[in-house]
Amino acid sequence: xxxxxxxxxxxxxxxxxxxxxxxxxxxxxxxxxxxxxxxxxxxxxxxxxxxxxxxxxxxxxxxxxxxxxxxxxxxxxxxxxxxxxxxxxxxxxxxxxxxxxxxxxxxxxxxxxxxxxxxxxxxxxxxxxx
Length: 130
Fold this sequence. Notes:
It is a single chain. This protein is an all-alpha fold and 130 residues long. The protein is 72% helix and 0% strand. Helix 5 runs antiparallel to helix 6 (96-119). It is elongated and about 65 Å long.
């Protein structure tokens, strides 16, 4: 919240004044000035937060442990994430080979999605500044 407040305070007031003089309403000002500026600044942070939330081990494992397991032959529970399932495979079941494959694939997919999202963002294309 503090970061977004800082971004909003950093938007030059002249942009808003010029838009009001040109006859823009509040929706146009938000969609053409405020939102693009905020996304320009926060895109790298949003990508890092997405990656961090995919690996959010503590919440799931400490609250539910990934349970309930609906199928007894299954190793993944109903509330498991990839990272908690990976933990169960390697520590509880000792399936190290499957755990290694899942860990490597998770890294490759997250790295590819993060790089594609950042490369297609305005933050990367217009690196000089807004």
